[in-house]
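Entry 14. Structure prediction run on the chain below.
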Amino acid sequence: PSSGPDVADTGGAGFGGNAAIRVQNGGSLSTTAGVTVEANGRGGFGLVQSGNGTGGTAEIDAAGTGVTLQAGTVAINATGIGGGGLAVDPTLGARPSQNGGDGTGGTATLRFRAIGTSTISLGDTTLDVSGTGGDSGQSSTPAGENATGGNARGGNATVTKSGANTAQLASLRVDASAESGAAYSGSGFTGFTGDAQGGTIDVSSAGAGSVLNLAGGSIILGASGTASSAGRENAGSGTGGSIAVSATNGGSLTGIRS
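Output returned:
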């Protein structure tokens, strides 16, 4: 929860920026540790209306010849989280937000365009563009009547491999899900949770000799849309997004096991 002696009626919006790692044309990035690229957005708390959170753009791009990209783990995150829940005032105690902010995921990209003698070998790899709506109050401290949880929308996540070369990942997990905010009204009957819309995921390998290999065999892709049922008053709608996996024009995806 937020805290402070003065809590704003309206929470500010939070926007993720642009974050990128690019290794190109003879460049090298090699570490046994983890590599994280983040452009998350988080809304602030507001007593009347909490702020929206919108993810930005995060990417890793390996392109050209003679490239080395190696890392123990990789995380590319552009999440959006709406503000809400509770704020703690030293005098008045816990105070709920009447309306949670919306959460909208951004864009995360993992792009391999390296060719020839380039070496690409990454450990467990995750992309997260999930959206999470903010809550209106909590079960222990409900908001007023007609409280509303924030809406949620998943973002766009892309993993692409092109060029005559092999890119190896230990595993791949991509999250473009959405979960709306909960709502707790004083009476227990008039709260409305937000709506949720899952985002989009595209995993592809294209072109002769282009190989995307999952050495550990694990691939988990999620673009669900879940309307929060917390509070059990009036639930919004949840709609799944879209997932596409393709190997075209001589490209291949290898190592995947069920």
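The CA atoms of residues 31 and 148 lie 46 Å apart.
Filed with the rest of this week's runs.
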